[in-house]
């Protein structure tokens, strides 16, 4: 990387940050060549130019600076165009469930139990005594 590439990198970073028109812009301060401090934290990110794209080191790979800012700049995150999808309620993938397992029954709604029916599961508690070790329930 040549000194002119680094100068161009800094100009490209400032250009991308300058696209935000908010009164309180997301801070991104150059610390050294290719290193920037972002946000209000001491987090450092590594930045480089790859095929005319400004890239940011994330985890074990690289992402564009624009995409990084979409995820981390509070202004971009709050706009409707850049809002991340709502969290999923389901925590498992139906494709990964084996056909032999059955889904857990839903918890009954209070007051909807039938008289005389037994609950499907009963809570179990272990008691410890000073006389001896705990014994598992049978």
TrEMBL record:
Quote the biased-composition stretches of kind Basic and acidic residues, using this chain's numbering.
128-138
Report the subcellular localization. Cytoplasm, Cytoskeleton
Principal localisation:
cytoplasm
State the source organism's domain of life.
Eukaryota
Coiled-coil ranges (or none)? none
Instruction: Outline the segment boundaries, as ranges, of region: Disordered.
Output: 77-138
* Chain ranges of the GAR domain: 4-76
Where is the chain membrane-spanning? Answer: none
Which UniProt keyword terms apply here?
Answer: Cytoplasm, Cytoskeleton
What is a GO molecular function of this protein? Answer: microtubule binding
Query: What residue spans carry the Polar residues bias annotation?
Result: 92-104
Name under which the protein is recorded: cDNA FLJ56589, highly similar to GAS2-like protein 1
């Amino acid at each position: 990387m040549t000194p002119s590439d680094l100068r161009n990198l800094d100009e490209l970073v400032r250009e991308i940050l300058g696209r935000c028109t908010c009164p309180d812009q997301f801070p991104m301060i150059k610390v050294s060549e290719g290193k920037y401090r972002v946000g209000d934290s001491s987090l450092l990110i590594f930045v480089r130019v790859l095929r005319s794209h400004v890239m940011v080191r994330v985890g074990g790979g690289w992402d564009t600076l624009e995409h990084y800012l979409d995820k981390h700049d509070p202004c971009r995150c709050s706009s409707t165009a850049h809002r991340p999808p709502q969290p999923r309620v389901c925590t498992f993938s139906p494709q990964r469930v084996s056909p032999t397992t059955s889904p857990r029954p839903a918890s009954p709604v209070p007051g909807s139990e039938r008289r005389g029916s037994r609950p499907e599961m009963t809570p179990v508690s272990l008691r410890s005594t000073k006389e001896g070790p705990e014994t598992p329930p049978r």
